[in-house]
Structures
1.
Amino acid sequence: MRIVILGAGQVGSSVAESLVSEANDITVVDVLPERLKKLQDRFDLRTVVGNAAHPAILEQAGARDADMILAVTQSDETNMVACKLAATMFNIPTRIARIRSSDYLSHPEIFSPQNFSIDSAICPEQVLTDYISKLLEFPEALQVLEFAEGRVSLVAVRAFQGGPLVGHPISHLRTHMPQVDARVAAIFRGDSPIIPEGSTVVEVGDEVFFIADTKNIRGVMRELRRMDKPVKRVMIGGGGNIGRRLAKQIEHRYEVKLLEYNKSAAQQLAADLDKTLVLNGDVTDEELLREENIAEMDVYCAVTNDDENNIMSSLLAKRMGVRKVIALINRSSYVNLVQAGQIDIAISPAQSTIGTLLARVRRGDCAAVHSLRRGAAEALELVAHGDEKSSKVVGRRIEQLDLPKGVTIGAVVRRHARQNRRDDAAPLYDYKVLMAHHDLVVEPDDHVIVFVVDKLTVPKVEKLFQVSVSFL
Amino acid sequence: MAWLLPIMPVLGLIAMAMSLSHLLPIGVSLYTNDGMAGLFTVSMTLNMLIGFVVWFASRRRRQPELQLREGILFIVLVWVGGALFAAAPLLFGLGLSFTDAYFESMSALTATGATLLSGLDYLPASINVWRAELQWLGGMGVIVLVVAVLPMIGVGGRQVTKAEIPGPMKDDRLTPRMTQTAKGLWIVYFALTFACMLAYWLAGMSWIDALIHAFTTLSLGGFSSHDASLGYFKSITIEVVAMIFMTLAGINFATHFRVWQARSLAPWRLDSELPYYLGVLCVSSIGIALFLWINGIYPDFATALRYGAFNTVSVATNTGYATVDYGQWPVFAPLWLIFLGTFVACSGSAGGGIKMIRAMILCRQMNRELNMLSHPNAISILKIKNRVVPNQVVFAVLAFFFAWLATLAIVTLLLTFSGLDVLTAFSASAASLNNIGPGLHEVGPSTTFAILSDFQTWVCSVTMLLGRLELITVLAILTPAFWRK
């Protein structure tokens, strides 16, 4: 696929990085030559210097025969204009823009083909904020990812001494909780994946990924570790884009304190936020943390723009007695250093937000992609199209599928037209979450949730789900 | 002093325009045949003539726009001079002394409602209508009326309203042009008054009583044509009507205007003061009723609630009607009422006192300071309904509050110095400063301000003016800097 990426900031670079490895032709546009140079040094891609909203620059970047444009510059307005130009001047079929302002996002009609022609507007900050707030909701989990509009969740939990399932084979889950259907998708022991069988024994320290109906995940987690008290008090370090969104989103559910170093930014935050206590000070100021009772906090989230600051302040907070720390870390080498040590959860913004973009880039009908374990593994929600003849999936039992090694099917979400709808406001369809037992038969339009341990096998999985042209 | 000249022609025009307000009492006088028509006609002619002379003599000095300083002085002169002209019919028609007539007309124009007249029931109908009409005009602010008229005669109104519209946040524009705003407010005021008059009439008042009481209800003035005030009618329907309209009149008229403009109730729901205003009124009404009932003042709770609620709403909104002599209640109750009268009315209403919005700002400022003690690094911002109140406004409110407290203390001291007892002096001072009307004890609801000496009467007249023009405006004129070129 030929893809034009506008903007070589954090989002643009990490998107470029993960797309370039999937055999795409990438062109990156940015106003700053230094940024582009860095990219070009590392990857095999073309770069163009200039304003991404100018027709001449887009032309130069090969917009004429591009298949997709990703407008992810810092400026919403540039992104919107670029998408409009891509549609009217260059006929690029797929246009994705990063739109941060909630004001624009609250009027989806401005993205329609008659207006700004944006196929999908994404907001990485919002994705990240949702991600963190899910973790606050389930403080025991390392990762909570949703599929099929939140009906199915993939949860990563570290197995602890004391969980009823720990030290037992996975098949015991059935006997412990006969009424709950859940499926262990993968286990990571140390850094190596284990493809779970019924007889695989869960050991202390294992990172267990399981898939379950969203309403059951608490129960399943209880099998793997003792439950913590629900989160009540949260401290956020850093009032940037993410800190502000996070505070705004959770301030009515938890008691929130927010630290911001810049005084005038702090004042603006205090004006915008309703119940959050905004504090002016350094996130690594031990005195300030003590004064604000860090020991009494349930969770500390370090979300400044600076990796080192985030790491240092979370280490400090952890030592001062906070129950759990979450740190935002951009550099993947740092993530490997600190994860599972003192810092409970290290979040890589690029990895957690790239999924929304990847879902659009993939061949086949891909409803959601979540990148796991720093991009090594992936969970996909694929839609099975076609019929028994044209598809290699539809009409077959799960055990019959020709899955590559290290790929497991976790669950299937099936849609039924709703019977006797009383009023027009009622949803059109009922959804049913089915765990992928070996004898389940895939039907057309099922959403299949696939767990891929090794990212290199993703193209094979996609191919499996593609409708073969010859049969059409 | 030459810089004063530009306001003279405007003052002249105002005087001429205001002289037309005599037409209503003249009409009433002719209709009821109470013999005052001649007097009012003379007063009107005199008023018109003086206005004309002032305007004619200084008309060449007119300027297109008033400066802020001129605007402030202009406002004060309109009130001082307006009360002077309005006092003439009382002076000659009732044979009052000049001091007393001026007090009465100042009390009317400031919508205070303190009176030193007794035997109101036997006064000529036209005099009662005149007193009520003055309150009605004063209530909305003679100025808002003037603002609607002034631009037509070529004088911009922006500087004028800055000094006039009550409340700390004055830049909250309703319409792009001041004239439209003034007209809008005026229409809402007029419509509510008309509705109120109709309701009173339907509830059983005579046309003239309905007119007088509608005037004094909407302006939160509180003059009545009966010594027993609204208690005269002994009608629960009339009391309920009065309570509803007093409550409405205590709300920011800008909010009413928005409701009328948008044809939706949303502006009421979004008003920042309204929940507190209604909350305080409800809680206090029920609280006072319980207090009265428990103390055995009234045999049953229903009666206690009827009298308790009415007088609470009346005093809290600074109207000053009474249905019973609440001065006879155990002293906690009337003191509580006076306390309510100091802050309950919303900004932008005809009520007096420091206004609900200032009380809210003061409370939140206090919380902010307390919060700073436990979180020294916290950035705390004073917000009203999600809007940040700039520190400058907070300082202005603090200064205003200090001026208000100081005035209250000084006036109380002056009144006790001249021989009044503490309760009378304090309540007279609070009732004048907050434009409530009746005080307690010797100036309570069943008595009048007639017992005051001339000196005390003047003190109260000035206090009413100070309260109406929100202190700072008047106090600014008293500073040397104001007069320096």
2.
Amino acid sequence: MGGIKGRLALVGLVILLFLLPSVLPRFYTYIIALIFVTALLAMSLNITVGYGGMFQFHHGVFYGVSAYTVALIITKTKLPAWVAFCAGPVAAAIAGLLIGGFCVRLTQLYFGMLQISLGSLLWAIVFRWYSLTGGDDGIHGIPMPDILSSLKNAYYFILIVLIVCLYLLYRIVNSPFGRTLQAIRDNPGRCEAVGVNVRRHQLAAIVIATFFAGVAGVLFVVLEGSVFPDLLFWVLSLEVFIMCLLGGWFTFAGPIVGAAIIVSLRTFVGMYTEYWTLILGAILILLIFFLPEGVMGFLMEKFAPRLKAHVVEERSRAQG
Amino acid sequence: MLRVEGVEKSFGDFKAVDGANLSVERGDIVAVIGPNGAGKTTLFNLITGQLKPDRGRIVFKDEEITGLPPYEICKKGIARSFQIVNIFHRLTVFENVQVAVLSHKGESKRLLEPARKMAVEETFELLRAVGLEDKAYEVAGTLSHGDQKVLEIAIALGNDPELLILDEPTAGMSPEETASTIELIKRLATERDLTILFCEHDMEIVFSIAKSIMVMHQGRTLIQASPEEVRNDPRVQEAYLGGEVCST
């Protein structure tokens, strides 16, 4: 993201995004806002998957926990909505601390399996506890503060929060914490040998990632005004995981690209057929064969020689 | 400085280390030798915490470190390199060493400062010391095997250790690379006031730089003594089937 040109392009893009709702029809404004929310969710997942190398298979749970926290505080208490908005990410981070605390004791696939189990447990509770969560109906018509009640304002709110979060995430992955996290991804054993408490570092990364998933959960409620158990269902987690792979999980912006592709596919292909996942499946197969580093990974490979070298190396190692 | 007393470690029924004793004095260069499978690497893994001993004591600077996790042992001043290249493949050479330096300075947990501006001087100083400065921005996975082994040593130095443990530092190197690495190790030992414990198959190297040699055979310590005594010890000659040690 270096260079004056890059910065100008970024500023231009942001200005463009701020102008969009004034020129686009309502429906497209909504879709773009949904892409923002999903992009933040995918970016937060990528902290653990792409940068941390952990099999965070059930990230959607934390998104859902936050969304439900917001919904419940607004509908069941008299606290102002802003309190709920702050409580959501905190609840998600606490869930991340608890579930992650168990998971980091395991590695690789076992980490992922345990997380799916614990996450599904939470899903089952939300799905069944009719008196509190509304069960499979979810909670609808959650009242928003007046300032957020129009779609245009909700869009601006989401965009601003997204930009702030992306800035923070960018700082985090490029900080000593982020660099050490990538070192753990490459070689946890070696990291311990240079004095890093690997499990604690991984747990911290999970808590950070789940916090930002929680922020995405808040934004979802702001956009939709409703919550439902699907937010915690493993299918959504899988979709978000695919976004990271599709966009390029070793790049910073990859998950945004992945989220944009998948949300668009679901929306526009979904208009013609409910079997839009067929198209997704076909794209995934092509991806595995032709762009193993994802869309952004492919672009970086084309344009950044430094990455190209290591991609070649990774492949030869994978084959050798 | 380091004392290993009666350490044992089994994997299932196999006793990999079965009564190892070792003593390393400050400023020494100590070698551990022994035939393949004698338990040298396992012993190193026990000292640096990758494995926990079943029995015995390991004492570093009058403090018992038996069974501590690797990251705590590292913080006490012991750093190591590995026999099989063990680096961060996707990171650059600079970042590989920087991770260790940041960890040593206790800055690994800083969340919002840019890492590229931190510990830069220290990291480059180390890269210069081992001769990898020119390759600082290459991705570690793309280096030659010899350079990766040197990077191993540089990562270990990132923790500014008092005791440096090198597990076969020249394994798989060409003769030229081996010679320059040996020079490097000698130079580091004097310049940085390091105590070095290493193991190595090449007897020529061992006898040329070690002040004290510990011989392992089937997990047991046969003897620890000066190179001269080790060379003339009948048990050692027997362990090596009268071969290698005599001929050098």
